[in-house]
Amino acid sequence: MPPQDAGDEILSVVGLSKTYVTFRKSPGVIGTLRAFFRREEVLVPAVRELTMSIRRGEIVGLLGPNGAGKTTTLKMLTGLVRPSAGIAIAFGKFDTSRRSAEYLTRLGMVMGQRNQLNPDLPAADSFKLAQAIYGIPESRCQRRLDTCLALFGVTDLALTPVRKLSLGERMKMELQRWRKTTGVCRRKVGQTGRGSRVGMAGNK
Ligand SMILES: Nc1ncnc2c1ncn2[C@@H]1O[C@H](COP(=O)(O)OP(=O)(O)O)[C@@H](O)[C@H]1O
Ligand SMILES: [Mg+2]
Questions:
Q1: Angle at Cα 199 formed by Cα 184 and Cα 148, nearest 5°?
Q2: Looking at the CA of 68, which ligand is closest?
Q3: Is 45 in the pocket of ligand 1 (CB under 6 A)?
């Protein structure tokens, strides 16, 4: 690989940690009454001091058993969950926990159980809505979409109600939505200058 300088770093994570505070309750009426007067607080250390660096053009997989903290990590990197400690800086300037609008328009996240596409409408309609929300010009949008759909071999399915698609086909359409809004389909992920994008996928 060619030597990379510090400017190639698109994600810098240092000591990122998350401890959730949750509560435990015994089942049944007695448990409910007891919890009503005194809740048993439980601390769940979901992510402990994660430090990593991702460079332009790298494709990274986050692997681990159930409960290892993968989803929590993605949520912290997209600003959905505030870290208990540590920091993640994207594109050299965005603290991911601050959820700046500029940062959010530069990332895409697809979660297996959280659908962005309206199941009653063809994906093409949801793409139109995303186009309006992200303010993407019509011609650029259509070009991106044609390329993305062809890349995934799902051009014919964009006009079918999403509810009628198989799980795999639906996930391909979900991916198209963020590819279309962020424009990743036209390039190799992360290999653009000012227009770099980050895409993330999770299952929860
Ligand atoms: N909102 C929450 N409140 C309390 N505990 C949570 C919450 N979300 C996740 N956890 C706990 O944090 C740990 C990590 O969860 P998660 O990040 O979903 O793991 P993974 O995606 O690797 O399976 C698990 O023990 C899970 O039970
Ligand atoms: Mg998960």
A1: 35
A2: 1
A3: no
How remote is the CA of residue 59 from the centroid of ligand 1, in Å? 24
Which ligand 1 atom sits closest to the C-alpha of 203?
21
Contact call for residues 79 and 90 (beta carbons, < 8 A): no
pLDDT in tens, 91-107: 999 999 998 988 988 88
pLDDT digits (tens, 9 = 90+) for 30-48: 889 888 888 889 999 999 9
Name the CA radius of gyration of the chain, rounded.
20
- Domain coordinates of the chain in residue numbers? 1-104, 110-204
Architecture of domain 1-104: 3-Layer(aba) Sandwich (3.40)
For ligand 2, the distance from its centroid to the CA atom of residue 104, given in whole angstroms, is 21
The model's pLDDT over 125-140, given as tens digits with 9 standing for 90+, comes to 988 888 888 788 888 8
